[in-house]
Amino acid sequence: MSSSTSDRRLSELWSCVTLDEARSLIDSTSSPLSLQNFVGGQYIAPHDSLTSSSQHITSFEPKTGRPIYTLPCTEPHAVEAAIKAAKAAFPSWSKTARAERSAILRKVSELLQQNREVFAIWESIDQGKTLDRARVEVDRAISNFSYFSTFILHEQTAARMVDGVALTYEHRSPAGVFALISPWNMPLYLLTWKIAPCLAFGCTAVAKPSEVTSMTAFLLGDIFQKAGVPPGVINIIFGDGATTGAALVASPLINGVSFTGGTQTGIAIRRLTAHQIGKHLSLELGGKNPTLVFADSMVPSVRERTIRVAAMAAFENQGEICLCGSRIYVEKSVYNDFVRDFTAYVREKYVLKQTVGAVASLQHCDKIRRYLELAAEQKATFHLGGAPPTLNEDEAQGYWIEPTILTDVAKNSAIQIDEIFGPVVTITPFDNEQEAIQLANDSEYGLAAILLTTDGARMRRVGEQLEAGLVWVNCWLVRELGTPFGGMKNSGTGREGGEHSRDVFTVVRTLHLPAY
Ligand SMILES: NC(=O)C1=CN([C@@H]2O[C@H](COP(=O)(O)OP(=O)(O)OC[C@H]3O[C@@H](n4cnc5c(N)ncnc54)[C@H](O)[C@@H]3O)[C@@H](O)[C@H]2O)C=CC1
Ligand SMILES: O=C(O)/C=C/C=C(\O)C(=O)O
User: Fold this and answer.
1) Which positions are tagged coiled coil (predicted)?
2) Which residue of 190, 265, 326 sits with most ligand 1 atoms within 8 Å of its CB, as the best mutation to test the pocket?
3) Does residue 470's CB lie within 6 angstroms of at least one atom of ligand 2?
4) Is 485 touching ligand 2 by the criterion CB < 6 Å?
5) Beta-strand (E) ranges in 379-491?
6) Where are the alpha helices (DSSP H) in 35-97?
7) What is the distance between the alpha carbons of residues 471 and 474, in angstroms, rounded to a whole number?
8) Which of 48, 394, 398, 481 is the least crowded, having the fewest Cβ atoms under 10 Å away?
9) How far is the C-alpha of 476 from the C-alpha of 9, rounded, in Å?
10) Measured from the CB, is residue 245 less than 6 Å from ligand 1?
11) CA 185 to ligand 2: nearest atom
12) What's the pLDDT score for residue 506?
């Protein structure tokens, strides 16, 4: 594809300001849209053998099951070309004054803001989420850039005197070229959560979105070009995990990997990089997060909040957020009331096709359906869900799962143990605080936990015993971008956010200067 053809395609994509216009564009094109890698500051023609690929992957619209575009499955030699572009850009970018880097990132955030609705439309089409949810996520992508563009302006390093003998200080420098790999549940939100700090701290990168949801990453290339990000500083390549992702993380030219995705993939990345001890690894992996509902949180004055927070934590984005609370534990004295009120609330507020979207892929939909079949076989009680959804002709091939509420699921059932990552929640009673903590911690994962109680002492007593990197009390997914974000146990290693992202993307040396 010549660059003028790619420009035309991009301008068609940018011109869609409603979901219907975007769908018409997909339907009207005789050949499916084909995404192109963005390397060295430009989109790469598919027939460029050095930087692209002969293999292609088709991506489908979750709400209809129709093909929407193809993407190159970038082969190792082309991955290497993108890494070399990032490496060539590193010396200059890493020395660029932080005020200048900040201004460029600020421009990226402004351009995202100006194109907010277009990004939301394509994210909703590509991922299956509702348009409202997509808008929330684009707003966070905007914040990712604005936050780190200002964070770097205020960094300071303190010097210390040691016993009057030596003056010491920490000197940080950008760690090098990063592989930034993101999943399909919140594509733009999570990819920019990596790109923004990486560039802010002076590193360069090769970013690879999920092969399931590559569309908004494709549009991002154009934003970086328009914002004046120098060529090679950020390269975006497409492809699957086995071919493209593995070649990217394993390359000896890559100094660090920031990855969000499934735990098994995190383990594979650790193996692929095990012999490269100095490679920075930040892995944000799966979760099977508990929501603990204490009886005091069901008193009339706060009952509505308790139900609302538990429901949001379970079903936001179809349950496709690694932080979702998919195991709800309820104190026995309020168990029946909770199940009744929670079910009524979810039935009213989480309505398939209105406030609940389609799940991301056919493969993922089949996986969730297998868990629902298992629940039926194991004679779980379905308070909601379990039946095939009512769909019109256009939606019949889409990946739709009704919000599902299960009780009577055994502790050792795979439904209670595995990360289902869909709109499926279990509710289980507990007798006392100690049992609640023990049930919450009885998981290989340790990403997040939600604690619903009005007892201030319990908030700390229980909260501090939960094996989770993030504990939310009477709220969920409240985020301040400087706080450490990441998981314990098999939910990952490393923390990102503010100065924790600085630890990921910089190397530190301590200088000792004689004081005399
Ligand atoms: N944030 C989270 O916690 C997420 C958890 N998951 C969980 O993982 C399960 C599997 O989902 P998948 O689509 O397979 O997610 P995944 O972990 O395979 O995909 C995430 C990203 O990793 C890449 N990738 C895969 N294998 C790789 C490798 N060997 N080296 C480098 N990159 C690689 C993929 O291409 C994608 O960009 C889900 O059902 C869900 O339970 C999935 C996505 C996000
Ligand atoms: O950074 C956040 O606010 C949320 C992150 C969510 C994930 O990493 C996920 O769902 O994979």
Assistant:
1) none
2) 265
3) no
4) yes
5) 381-384, 404-407, 424-430, 445-446, 448-452, 470-473, 488-489
6) 76-95
7) 10
8) 394
9) 39
10) yes
11) 10
12) 98
Q: Answer whether 227's CB lies under 8 Å from 233's CB.
A: no
Residues 2 and 219: their CA atoms lie apart, in Å, by 17
Q: Which two tokens stand for residue 322?
A: 């690694």
Q: Are 511 and 158 in contact (CB under 8 A)?
A: no
Output the CA 512–ligand 2 centroid distance in Å: 39
pLDDT of residue 52: 65
Q: What is the mean pLDDT of each run of 10 residues along the chain (516 residues)?
A: 64 93 86 91 80 84 96 96 98 98 98 98 98 98 98 91 89 98 98 98 98 98 98 98 98 98 98 98 98 98 98 98 98 98 98 98 98 98 96 97 98 98 98 98 98 98 98 98 98 98 97 85
How many angstroms does the Cα of residue 261 sit away from the middle of ligand 1? 4
Q: Which two tokens stand for residue 393?
A: 């002709």
- pLDDT value of residue 373: 98
In the block, tokens 């997914």 appear at 477
284, 320, 331, 419: the catalytic one is 284
Name the pTM for this structure: 0.97
Instruction: Specify whether the CB–CB gap between 55 and 75 falls below 8 A.
Output: yes
The residue type at 295: A
Is 419 noted as a catalytic residue in this protein?
no
Q: Is 265 in the pocket of ligand 1 (CB under 6 A)?
A: yes
- Alpha carbon nearest to ligand 1 atom 8, residue: 262
Q: What is the DSSP letter of 321?
A: S
Separation between Cα atoms, residue 414 and residue 436, nearest integer Å: 19
Measured CA to CA, the distance from residue 283 to residue 266 in angstroms comes to: 6
Token couple for 446: 């340790």
